[in-house]
Design a protein that fits this description.
- The protein is mostly beta strands.
- The protein contains no helices and eleven strands.
- It is globular and about 40 Å long.
- The N and C termini lie far apart (40 Å).
Length: 118
């Protein structure tokens, strides 16, 4: 079992930056790939970024490549999403998620709101 709690959301102007954090509980945190997803009003939840259990491999949605960076600290059971050059279309609730090897994402946080104004 993994429990996830996001923090760091807020309101920022376009071009600004935010850093989201996700605190995970569970002794096997380091064995899970971790991801960030987001859901804007009226839209489906979409993939944003993923980091492998070692932290050596990352993946990004095309819409955030070059602007967002995902990282993890297994010693602290933390995952981060550094978001730079934010755009109004990045406005959404951001969710942290975890999945085991070869599995779909099965553990989700409660989400944190990010609002980017123009």
């Amino acid at each position: 079992q993994v429990q996830l709690v996001e923090s760091g959301g807020g309101s920022v102007q376009a071009g600004g930056a935010l850093r989201l954090s996700c605190a995970a509980s569970g002794r096997t945190f380091s064995s899970y790939a971790m991801g960030w997803f987001r859901q804007a009003p009226g839209k489906e939840r979409e993939f944003v970024a993923e980091v492998s259990w070692t932290g050596s491999t990352t993946k990004y949605a095309e819409s955030v490549k070059g602007r967002f960076t995902i990282s993890r600290d297994n010693a602290k059971n933390m995952v981060y999403l550094q978001m730079n050059s934010l755009k109004p279309e990045d406005t959404a609730v951001y969710y942290c998620a975890a999945r085991g090897v070869g599995s779909a994402y099965e553990y989700w946080g409660q989400g944190t709101q990010v609002t980017v104004s123009s």
